[in-house]
Amino acid sequence: MAAQIKTRERIVQASLELFNTQGERNVTTNHIAAHLGMSPGNLYYHFRNKQAIIAELFSQYESRVDVVLRVPEGRPMTVEDKTFYLEALLAAMWQFRFMHRDLEHLLESDPELAARYRQFAQRCLSHATAIYQAFAEVGILRMSAAQIEALTLNSWIIMTSWVRFLCTTRGDPGDLSEEMLRRGIYQVLALEGGYLTPDAEAAVQALYARLYVPLEQIITP
After folding, report:
1. Spans of the chain, pLDDT less than 70
2. What is the residue range of 28's domain?
3. Is the keyword DNA-binding assigned to this protein (predicted)?
4. Please, what's the b/e burial string for 149-168 (b: 16 or more CB within 10 A of its CB; e: otherwise)?
5. Same domain, 43 and 62
6. How far apart are CA 112 and CA 117, in angstroms?
């Protein structure tokens, strides 16, 4: 049983690597098997098709984001929490970047995954709203309920479309870097600029400087 679990994990990790560097559409189960030096039949013993591998990767991504998007219990929010959220989301985006790049194709190819993703999106929006509300309650942001709703939605749009934006401006799916994704996180933070309270301004400006990546490093001339 342990050997089977190890093989299954190897398939998942190899698939993630190939999807990220080559693009999910360009990778078949035969490519994955060859990459691992195993027969296609051995791969099919663990996963019936490529969609099953993608579903497993989505489960990992979903669990990771669900853990991150939580309001801390038993204490008020701080600017350090903002750093945590942004850095943790950046790490998840980078590790599972193929999902953001190929999202429409993935959902069109698998109705079950599409239904799971819709639930995931609704959950993320709900949790992100609660996080912004908590920042407003402690005086880091000054926002109305309508502004929180708009900021949550705009942040989600940037987060889920940033990788595709990079691919359209650079062309090569293997040409992405974590620094390029960091600029996407910066764009989310920049949306909050007009809502910062004076008490939070200095700390958040330091976070701006930490996340900023020059545009010429992002877009290919």
Report:
1. 1-5, 171-174, 220-221
2. 1-48
3. yes
4. eebbeebeebbbebbebbbe
5. no
6. 9
